[in-house]
Amino acid sequence: MGSSLKHQFEFFLKYLIERLQPSPQEDKQEDSSGARIGRRIAYKGTNLDEREVLLGALIQFVGDPSFMINVYVNYDCDLHSENIFEGIIDVFAKVC
Asked: 8: pLDDT confidence band, cut at 50, 70 and 90?
């Protein structure tokens, strides 16, 4: 990955990951008897359509066979960069 766009791409991927992460606040839904019937996860300022577009973009990136390897090598192995690979895996584990 070219060093001239490394920081911009890192910022873009961090933005995708942040917007797709559920916030710590969850609305627990209960029926009239007080039994828990489900939960609704709150997201950080994104509506359903925005999350769908962001997740679609992330899925397209991950569809490239060398993308995740390049992310790991260029970001997670770099002491001065964020753990982007870890963030992507975390998003997929929570959202999908």
From this structure: very high
SS3 content of the chain, % helix, strand, coil (to 5): 55, 20, 30
Could you tell me the CA-to-CA distances from 20 to 2, 13, 29, 33 in Å, in that order? Answer: 26, 11, 22, 33
* Look-up of token digits 């577009």: 53
Integer Cα distance of 11 and 21 in angstroms:
15
pLDDT number for residue 88: 95
Output the CA torsion 57→62→63→67 (10° steps). Answer: 120
DSSP characters over 37-80: EEEEEEESS--HHHHHHHHHHHHHHHTSTTHHHHHIIIIIT-TT
Cα–Cα dist 19/51, whole Å: 7
